[in-house]
Amino acid sequence: MNTQQVKFFEAINLALPDYQNLAQSIADALGISTNEAYKKIRGTSNLSLPQLITLADTFGTPFSYQPNQLPSVNFSYLYINRETPNMLAYLKDLLQNLKFIQQHKDKHIMITTNDIPIFHFFKYPELTCFKLFFWADSQNFKFDQTAINEEIVAIAQELNQIYLQMPSTEIWAKDAVHGSIDQVRYAFEAGHINDKALAEKIVEQIRYCLTDMNMYALSAKKTIDPQHSFNWYNCDVLGSLAYLIEFKESMLCYNRFNTFNYLKTEDQFYCAQTKDWMQGLIRKSVAFSGQGEKHRNKFLYTAFAACDKLIEEINQA
């Protein structure tokens, strides 16, 4: 049996929606019978090089062969030119990925983060556009009401709604909120935001995000549907920003880098290691959901106080 080929088909199967049959999809792509497709999926009939290329192109799944060397993992990523970043393209790619996850019947998202997860602030137009402009790392940008892009806002709010319908576990660093607060402070003090009312509105929307989080945590779910479960943890020691997607029989991992970019992999061994690491973090974390009211209230009180302090600074400037 060709084990490398079997793993290739497992990766293709991960890329297919639940309702789509793997063997029939392979047969259609290669122009062969479903019986022959089953043989290739089982690894008893070898793929030719042209067939490998056809399948990789059709399903967007690379075939990787490694000789007996150190383990390696293949990642894919969306390239964003930092000189002229296209944040609309970035959001469209996020939406495509989230819709792919949504179409699976059994899914769960685990997140480790040192900032408010992007899907939460996507609910608020001014905060969304400010974060995207800040991430663009422009030294000369001026953020005002004209920077509120309606198409960006519409896609961002769709992303927020889809995320709310997915069961998730979030592990936040202890100072996760303060990064966003400090970004607004820096932008205001550096003159990137000249409108006091707009700066204050962005800070208020950070408060709204935290109020949303409290509401989700109280009931341990993000909507009235109990299937949209929500588990929230706070961890003093957090190594990296990662999103792990668990399906019924497979996993998918996204690692954030360069502020807003991410590396994506379907390597199951790597995903399993990431899951073990995340579960280890949970064991070291304080639970905020459900019965974790005391610790959650302390965390939120500190965050709200930091928001109030910044608003006071803005008004006194």
How many beta strands in the DSSP annotation?
Answer: 7
Q: Sum up the overall morphology in one term.
A: elongated
Low-confidence stretches: none
The major pleated sheet works out as: 7 strands, mixed
Number of domains: 2
Main sheet: strand order: 6-5-4-1-2-3-7
Query: Roughly how many Å is the radius of gyration?
Result: 22 Å
Structural class: alpha/beta
Question: Which percent range fits the helix content?
Answer: 40-55%
Mean pLDDT level: 88
Number of helices: 12
Report the β-strand fraction as a percent range.
5-15%
Give the termini distance in whole angstroms: 71 Å
- Compressed to H and E, one letter per element, the order equals HHHHHEHHHEHHEEEEHEH
SSE diagram, text form:
Layout: H1 3-15, H2 22-30, H3 34-42, H4 49-59, H5 87-102, E1 107-113, H6 118-121, H7 125-135, H8 150-164, E2 168-173, H9 176-189, H10 196-219, E3 230-235, E4 242-247, E5 251-257, E6 261-265, H11 268-283, E7 286-287, H12 293-316
Question: Brief overview, please?
Answer:
The protein is α/β, with parallel strands linked by helices. The protein contains twelve helices and seven strands. Strands 6-5-4-1-2-3-7 form a seven-stranded mixed β-sheet, sandwiched between helices.
3D architecture notes:
The longest helix has 24 residues, at 196-219. This protein has helices at 3-15, 22-30, 34-42, 49-59, 87-102, 118-121, 125-135, 150-164, 176-189, 196-219, 268-283, 293-316; strands at residues 107-113, 168-173, 230-235, 242-247, 251-257, 261-265, 286-287. With 317 residues, the chain is an alpha/beta fold. The protein has a 7-stranded mixed beta sheet with strand order 6-5-4-1-2-3-7, sandwiched between helices. α9 (176-189) runs antiparallel to α10. The chain is elongated, with a radius of gyration of 22 Å.
